[in-house]
Amino acid sequence: MSATPGSSTRAELTTPAALAAEHEVRRVLAFGAHPDDIDFGAAGSIAAFTAAGVQVTLCLLTAGDAGGFEPGRDGAELARVREAEQRQAAAALGVHEVILLDERDGFVAPTAELVGKIVRIMRQVRPEVVVSPHPERAWDRLQKSHPDHLACGEAVVRAAYPSVENPFAYPELAAAGLEAFKIRHLLLTTAPQERVNLRLDVSGQESVKLDALRAHFSQHPDAERMQDFVLEQMREIHGAGGFAEEFHWVTVNAPDTISGF
Questions:
Q1: Nearest-angstrom CA–CA distance, 157 and 122
Q2: pLDDT at 174 over 90
């Protein structure tokens, strides 16, 4: 599969199961800045991955306690609510592990400290594929590019190369038995349209995606409108009567990749 974005032809369409088989994917690690980020961007694909036997782990950088539509709600209470919502959504997708970090909602920055936390998780899970928001701003729909999403994407990309594979980076991790390894691929959501080079056909999983999104009850003042918008977008991405999600697929380490080039 080509990792070259911006071609004049429509992005390649395949299924998550076929992608996993082609690239021998056993483990996927998905990052989001807030609860529901991963579900909006990739819930259909994640449901299809788990149905195909792929182990998926979710990692959220913040508790999402600065989101929602109830002014004055206690932040600690909202954090508890959103964690419960995310765990319910994850269960709907067949995901059994949700990792929560403690970055401040609305103020995520790709610091060396955050990159180190992400490297630790990557080395614990050792995935072949990492899902993350895209680090580039999408001007076609600015709502995709919340600053926390961009910062999450930048931190994940910095962790994926070179930090996670550099044995001299974060030596305390190696000392704790978390050895360096190479990430093979990135699957980036919320990409600018010129970067989209992969569509994953998730037809049959659209209702599961909606189940996951509905679990984030605190975030949807108009759940029906949200559902209609999501389904419309998935139909448009597919383009042939089904449902799909779109990504920027990046090969970080192929069999012929030379380190440093």
A1: 12
A2: yes
